[in-house]
Amino acid sequence: ADEYAQLRERESIVPAAYAAADLRISPSRFLRQKLIDDPVGKPVFDPHTFLFSDNGMRTDHVEALEKTASDVVRFGFVGSLVWYKGGETMIKAMAELAPDAKAELNIYGGFDPVGDDHHKKLKRLAQSYSAKVNFRGRFDNSKLSEVYAEIDVLVVPSVWFENSPITIHEAYLTETPVLASDLGGMAEFVTDGKDGLLFEVGNPVDLAAKMRRFVREPDLARELVARHFLMPACPPPEPEPPTPEPTGGLEVEVVAQPAPEPLPPLPPPPKKGVLGAFERMPGGIPALTRSNGAR
To answer: Which candidate, 154, 278, 283, places its Cα nearest to that of 211?
Structure first.
């Protein structure tokens, strides 16, 4: 109840803060469109002052290590175990698998079943189902690559929209396929059947069905990773409608103008320096930095 009340309070405070800004930047096209249009389709923010630019993240500590040996398919969750991250869904999905299924779920992130009621609930749920679930606890971000080397498939089962989940980007950097809810930013960054699989949000039966595919199709994970690197970094943006010029209530006669003369070709870009470095990066956008703390 307290968390719900906090979310309702945010609903009035956060959009007001956005409205006070001259320029807004969204790390997912989904969130940008969600904030531009209200439920009845009336524009809330001017789309020309709302840009899309994906999250910047440091990658110097992330590398695609060879997966460690395992006789089972290791599904993994990385992040905070709060209710809207879908922990119940993935534990119930593991219970849907046959008892002899060669699969396990490893959950990485802070876990305190004594002091946290939700963590206690998840532990009891896993025990009641006798599901193959292991709570691995926190880890330092410097060990991120080693953690993903022990994950064959990353599960992102959030039951709310999400934005541009860092874990999905980390999974791609470590050549780990993603199994995610078909919702919000998750569905934007995971293309079903191309570079990952999507399941119906909050549906453990559908999630279990997708998990079985990885168990029964040993090459599926490798095929999805290979397809990801063959796909464009992100789809081209949709064109924005032109902004009408204010007329002040006067009638304006529109006169066709001749097409301008073509501009001369640009000189070739420099081979070294800042511009050259940006051109070598996907999308031409430099990576930013973030803290390297514990999960």
So the answer is: 154
